[in-house]
Amino acid sequence: MRTPIVRLQTLAIRNIKNVEDGEIQMPFALNKEMTYDKAEILGIYGQNGSGKTAVVDTIHFLQMLLCGKSIDKSWSDYIDSRKDTAQIQAVFTVFCENAVYDVTYSVVISRDGEMVKISEESLASATITSDKRTNKTTFLSFQTGESEAFTPKKRYDEIIKQVPNATINLIVAKRIAEKSRCSYIFGENSREIFLSCDETGRARWDYAIIISALFTFAVKDLFVIRNTHSGYITANIALPMAFRIDEENSGIKGDFAVSLREPTLIDLNKLEVLNKIIADINTVLFTIIPGMNILVKDLGVQTLEDGQEGHRVELLAQHYDLPAIPIRMESEGIIKIVSILNAMIQLFANPSICLVIDEMDSGIFEYMFGELLSIAAKSAKGQLIFTSHNLRPLEMLNKDSIVFSTANPQKRYIHMKNVKNTNNLRDVYIRSITLGGQNEKLYEETDSLKIARAFRKAGRRIANG
């Protein structure tokens, strides 16, 4: 194990969107397994408006915080309109060479006029070795308005004693974090202090390993594909491809967007990246869509605004030996598969990858959707979290890999009880919706007669002008 491996275990959400209180657990956490050598898949199911997308949005916010990025003004829209604060608590397992760390990161965000600020933040950990486990203790805690840079004082004194100019630098880092509305623990200025090395080049404190591992996880290994990603495809605007390319001493990760309406103008470096992305996608695509490959068509050189040489490119789809056509002519489902395929490939390569996809089933053939998840469950190495309305995965995945949103905003997510591995979870779910039998109500009932009457009433109003 050359670098630490990070796995998300649980995620608790409070007062975000319509979730007053909810917690999801990954299968290993549910079964108290301490391992990273196989795939973990968690599908989130429930009726519209029951908090599925809130999980995806929360993980996106969490990624921004762990990357040390500023929180956006729009975050205020995600805090429950009846509340002033929201809380995210994430538990991770960090697997290192000689120890395993059970880590809890907690953050409270609150409204600040029209903006949002981080009002509380903490990081706690327990260390697990071959012969013992320590108690989980908080090693960094931060609150706005306090005079101290952070607590506990013991940690603060350690840094002041060993790091030159730390007293001033920590105060400056705190003020910068408050002004830029970013995490104090993971913000660039304070992170540099927490990760500082001694004269031999070694990290001064054990918690530096944890901060570095979580930061690297958020930057390199966590993919969050939200509805906005699919929206560009549905609107036929662009094809955003989530990707990661690893090279010997560096790598890049992000979304590579190619226009679906006109050729895309890119420089030579981006053209090289695009060719690598498409080469990886083609390795798998022809097995999912038989005989299909993606081609990068170079339509010629055009000078960029900075005077450099650029290339006008277009993506084409080719089936077997038939003439290639612009990829925008393909179905939304095929374009959706292409958009997530490089990230899916990463899931099979790296146990630290966590891929989160909202409405993963959108546009994808039901049988193929189930097969993709079944293959991932058997052969992938990382973690996959997805939301869906397609019930096919309930027949393909283990019951521990499915969580259901409920009609109770104070307990939004549950695993189904009284389900044996021999049961068809899809049938159990439908039966529970109609007949009950679970600890929480899974469906806010609708009245088909009232719906029909409302449609007829609206129809008459239109017909009568």
Automatic annotation (TrEMBL):
Entries under Gene3D superfamilies matching the protein: P-loop containing nucleotide triphosphate hydrolases
UniProt source species: [Clostridium] aminophilum
Pfam family, one: AAA_21
Residue ranges of every copy of the ATPase AAA-type core domain listed in the record: 42-391
MF (Gene Ontology): ATP binding; ATP hydrolysis activity
InterPro entries associated with the record: ATPase_AAA_core (IPR003959), P-loop_NTPase (IPR027417)
Name of this chain's protein: ATPase AAA-type core domain-containing protein
